Amino acid sequence: MFEFDGFDFGLYAPGADGFDVEFGDNCVPTFEVEDVDAAYDRIEEIAPEMVHDEMLEIGDYRTFHFVDTEGNEIEVFSVDPG
To answer: Is the pLDDT of residue 2 over 90?
Structure first.
């Protein structure tokens, strides 16, 4: 876990959660936000490319991926405590 200007940045440990993970190009920096809809609207305006056409929802987990100006895929998500 790393701290950058007041937020934490962590790296995922493949296999730590019991799921099989393919190695290769699947390392995606992931950021949790409070309002994923607001983040989507803002990033959609400035990102060179959105990976999916819409927000992905998996249970209480809502996420989207975009490609930054350096060609890196980034994930942004929130979890509804509901």
So the answer is: no
